[in-house]
Amino acid sequence: MDTALRIAVPEDGAACAAVYAPYVADTIISFEMVPPTAEEMAARIVKTLPDYPWLIAEAGGAVAGYAYASQHHARAAYRWGADVGVYLAEAARGQGVGKRLYTALLALLKAQGYETAYGGISLPNPASIALHEGLGFTPVGVYARTGYKMGAWRDVGWWQLALGGAVGDPPAEPVPFAEFRRRPGWDACLSGA
Predict the structure, then answer these.
(1) pTM reported for the whole predicted model
(2) Dihedrals phi, psi of 150, to nearest 5 degrees
(3) Is 33 helix (H, G, I), strand (E, B) or coil?
(4) What is the model's pLDDT at position 140?
């Protein structure tokens, strides 16, 4: 699938909501119970972009998928880690779009100064496990019976990837994404994916 990557804008809220809705309504992949509205997704994009990347993959003028990062935990010592997620439109699955989105997202996070990326995967989800492990993530553990959805308790597995972006001792602070985007050459991470 021929796709172009770009940074999300609030106007992508409706398209991202449409991509995400089947994961919420029809699967255990997301632990949300009600698909967010276009306005809610736009608000999430706005909230994310000051600190973390939110990427869009476009194919034929339509959103084929998106990937984003978020805070791993609120306590200060966790600030060099980021959680990551990717969601694809049905037609984009199995086409390399998820790998391309994640490759760019991880490159951006490393360049921002993040040390580790974490992926939480509702189990079972062999496609997501294959994507994460194919990019070098390693399993670190399972939270058993951590969510109740679709009539049963569900486990969540956690995978992590060392990015090696934290430099110095003590390491420099990760650069907020809004500031990082003002630096020359930042967009090479998108074109290199």
Answers:
(1) 0.96
(2) 55, 45
(3) coil
(4) 98
